[in-house]
Structures are given as C-alpha cells and as structure tokens.
Amino acid sequence: MNQAFAHEPVMAAEVVDRLSPVPPGLVIDATVGGGGHAEAVLDAYPHLSVLGLDRDPTAVAAATDRLARFGARATIRHARFDQLASMLADEMARRESSGGPGAVGVSAVLFDLGVSSPQLDTAERGFSYRRDAPLDMRMDPTAGRTAAAVVNEFSEDALVELFVDNGEGRFARRIARAVVAARPITTTGELADVVREAIPAATRRTGGHPARRVFQAIRIAVNEELDQLGRAMDDALDVLGLGGRCIVIAYHSGEDRLVKSTFLTASTGGCTCPPGLPCVCGADPAFRLVVRGARRPTSDEVERNRRSEAARLRVIERVADRRPGTLHEGEVA
C-alpha cells in the first residue's frame, strides 16, 4: 500500500455488514481515499465490483495501488463526488466498448465525508492548525481557490456567516474582525494564532483548540463540500438499483443534517401529512431507512482511531423502482 496515504477506514466492518443484502453489481465509492473501504468490500463480496472516485490525486494513486490486486473489479477515477453520474456513464460506456456488459446495476453508493488522516498529517496541504504551512486546504491541489483566498478576500460579514454556519457562533464576529485586521494571513500558524488571540483567555482553556471549527469552516468553503454533497446525494439515490443501498459516513453536523434530510425525504416520498397520522397526500416512497437515526463507531474503534469519534453512519435502501428505462432486478453483471 502507498504509505504516503496510509489510512484506516472508519466503521469498515459496519459498512461491509450493511452491504451484505445488496444484489450483484457495482459499488460506487464516491470518496475512495486510500481504498480502505473499497478493499474491505471487494474482499468480502466477489459478486461486487467498485468504481472509486476521489478529487485528491494522491488518494487516486494510493487507491489504484492498493486495489490493483482485484484487476478489472476495481476502477479508480480522479473526480469529485458530484460527478458520480457522469463517471458512472463513462464506466458503462467503457465496459461496453471493451466487450463487457455495459448495463451493470448500481448495488451501492458509499460516501466517507470530510478530510482524511493523510491530508491532515501532510503539513504542506494546509489542513491542520497544528502544523505551520501555506494556507491551502484544497482536496484537489491542482484546482480551485485556496484557503488563503477565503481568509484574505471574504468580507467580515461573509466570514461571520461562514463561522456561524459551522458551529462557531459565540465568537464568530470577534474572530472575523481579527482575521480582517491581521490581513494578509499566509500560513496556517498565523491563522491559528489570530483565532486564538481573538477568543477570551478563559474560553481558550476549555473545549479543545479554539481554531478547530474555524479551520473546518474554511476547508468546507474552499472545497464547496456542502453544495457538492447535495447534488451528489440526489444523483446517488437516482442511480441506485432496486435493493441497492446508499451509505454515508459524516463527521460534521452540517453534513449530517443534509444527509438526514435527504434520506428522510426519500424514505417518506416527500409526504406532507402530520407525523403519526396515516398518509393521505399520495406519497409513494421508493426508499426505506435501513437504520433509524445514525450509527456510531464502537468504543474500541474510537480508542484505536480517535479521529473516528465524530463519525455518524446512515443507510438507505431502494425498495421500489418506477424510473422509466432503468435497470431492474436481475439486469446486473
């Protein structure tokens, strides 16, 4: 395995277990990272293949190396997760042109959101407030605006809104004002110091590093994570075959709220009737929630991998397929 992207997949055993009932076909790992989840799935289920996507070229190289032993069962592409529909179409066309089956059912879509340990631990990527480095934070370092652009170009009000939306409501204005006053800010260390000094000393002594939520907010803005996630979730549910499942692991409250809302709407068919009363609005859901609420990592996993502590896993399954012209059960590889 590529040691530059060594990464323990979070809740891998539960992911594998939740995929046990899905029909044969293709699993889209929309955030393949170093390939840990994909490897576990391919090892467990010979009837499944994987299309792995990641926007980080380093992750793509690591996953390609890690999954090479599976041959044609694993395909890795450099792409954002909101490109999964087009990547799926490309994969089907590639299979057909190579003489294989072009029509393969999508058995599952997996999202493991957030930043990975290798990204955090590589100082020059600029994700961590604990390591001084240029302000970057791009998951794809070849494209898009950097964290420096957000920090130095956003207005004070825009920074306040960004920090509030990501859980830093109490001191958002103080931090934003301090950031604007300190410009230009060019490194993670400078930004962490500005945030620390903007927060009262008594508060700094509790609740972890005061820059944690600010860095998280800036990273989400740099990578447009929530905007892209909304589109990707809609596409994931749309391409999912009958009996297929979508599994999402989220680490941030904003991500988890979006996933919860999307899954609730899908599992109720958009029902507008009052909770607890029979449905009379004609909603006809095509999905069901596999688990109520969110699953959490075990205490053993948290002890082994502290970064798994914030993980929330949700699962939904397609139970009806009324889409015209789509694959139905039995039309899989």
Descriptive notes:
The chain is of the alpha/beta class and 333 residues long. The chain is built from 14 helices and seven strands. It has helices at residues 12-18, 36-44, 57-66, 84-97, 117-121, 147-153, 156-165, 172-182, 188-198, 201-204, 212-223, 225-239, 253-268, 299-304, and strands at 25-29, 48-54, 74-78, 106-112, 245-250, 287-289, 312-318. The protein has a seven-stranded mixed beta sheet, sandwiched between helices. Strand 2, helix 3 (57-66) and strand 3 form a beta-alpha-beta unit. Helix 7 packs across helix 8 (172-182) and helix 12 (225-239) runs parallel beside helix 13 (253-268). The longest helix is centred in the last third of the chain and has 16 residues, at 253-268. The protein is globular and about 60 Å long. The model is unreliable at 327-333 (pLDDT under 50).
